[in-house]
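Long-time lurker, first post. I've been practising inverse folding by hand and with some scripts of my own, and I keep getting stuck on stretches where the structure tokens seem ambiguous. Below is the full token string for one chain I'm working on. Before anyone asks, I'm not after the true native sequence, just a reasonable design that respects the backbone. If someone could post their per-position residues I'd love to compare against what I wrote down in my notebook.
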């Protein structure tokens, strides 16, 4: 599940259970100039070949799916604006 950084200079990839980064140089010859461990453990890299993570354009923030031992839950909040208004009124007291 490799993912390129927005600037094309880094390649993010899993070596389970770690998410790693490789800094790449293309000229004068192709070379990996640096390797870093970004996150270690707790991530489920077993998927159907879809990336379970992505990097923000600044490469400072990542969105990752974490492995959970329990069955996944989906929580749907209906009329969430009403919920936010109600909670904000409580905070003003």
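-- Answer (accepted) --
I ran through it position by position. Result:
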């Amino acid at each position: 599940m490799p993912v390129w950084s927005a600037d094309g200079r880094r390649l993010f990839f899993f070596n389970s259970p770690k998410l790693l980064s490789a800094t790449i140089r293309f000229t004068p010859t192709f070379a990996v100039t640096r390797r870093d461990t970004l996150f270690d453990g707790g991530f489920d890299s077993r998927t159907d070949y879809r990336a379970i993570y992505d990097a923000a354009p600044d490469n400072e923030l990542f969105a990752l799916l974490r492995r959970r031992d329990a069955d996944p839950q989906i929580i749907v909040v209906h009329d969430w604006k009403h919920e936010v208004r109600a909670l904000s009124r409580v905070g003003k007291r």
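A couple of notes from the structure itself: The chain has a mean pLDDT of 77. The radius of gyration is 19 Å. Happy to go over any region you disagree with.
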